[in-house]
Amino acid sequence: MSEQNDTVFGKIIRGEIPSDKVYEDDDVLAFQDLNPAAPVHILVIPKKYIVNAFDAEEDDAELLGKVVLAAKKVAIDQGLEEDGFRLVINNGEGVGQSVFHLHAHVLGGRSFSWPPG
User: Fold this and answer.
1) Which ranges in the chain belong to alpha helices (H)?
2) Quick one: CA dihedral 53, 104, 72, 13, positive or negative?
3) Residue 90 Cα to chain centre, angstroms
4) Rounded distance, CA 88 to CA 98, Å?
5) Would the CA dihedral through 70, 61, 35, 7 be positive or negative?
6) Are 67 and 88 in contact (CB under 8 A)?
7) Catalytic site residue 103?
8) Ordered structural domains, the chain, with CATH
9) What are the tens digits of pLDDT across the range 57-78?
10) CA-to-CA distance for 72 and 106, rounded, in angstroms?
11) What is the rounded CA–CA span in Å between residue 81 and residue 102?
């Protein structure tokens, strides 16, 4: 993990800020969002510091795949398999990214409209 990761997510990864963890492995951490936008709203983050998709490199492909697979596992564990879930990654402040550490939102438990926002 990069030492420049002083975001709230970096602090959560290091255990400096508590979180309601729902999944963790060597590369990925998932926890309940503090301000849920749906009945199920879980954040899935790589432990490696990546600002957003613009900052991702070819070497991060496997890690990004692990984020998606962890999101799938979390969604199944939360009972979203039958009705589905939305997986969102915001990339930049203008589209809603407020923590500049790449993260995926697992959203479910209600109906969503399209297009979002």
Assistant:
1) 8-13, 61-77
2) positive
3) 10
4) 13
5) positive
6) no
7) yes
8) 8-108 (3.30.428.10)
9) 999 999 999 999 999 999 999 9
10) 9
11) 24
Whether the per-residue pLDDT at 51 is higher than 60: the answer is yes
Per-residue confidence (pLDDT) for residue 3, from 0 to 100? 52
Give the pLDDT confidence of 2-19 residue by residue, as tens digits.
456 899 999 999 999 999
Choose, from 41, 101, 103, 105, the residue flagged as catalytic: 103
> Would you state the pLDDT for residue 1?
42
Is the predicted pLDDT of residue 50 greater than 90, yes or no? yes
C-alpha triplet 70, 96, 22: angle, nearest 5°:
25
Residue 42 near residue 30, CB atoms below 8 Å: yes
Note the pTM of the prediction, 2 decimals. Answer: 0.94
Q: What value does the mean pLDDT take over residues 38-57? A: 97
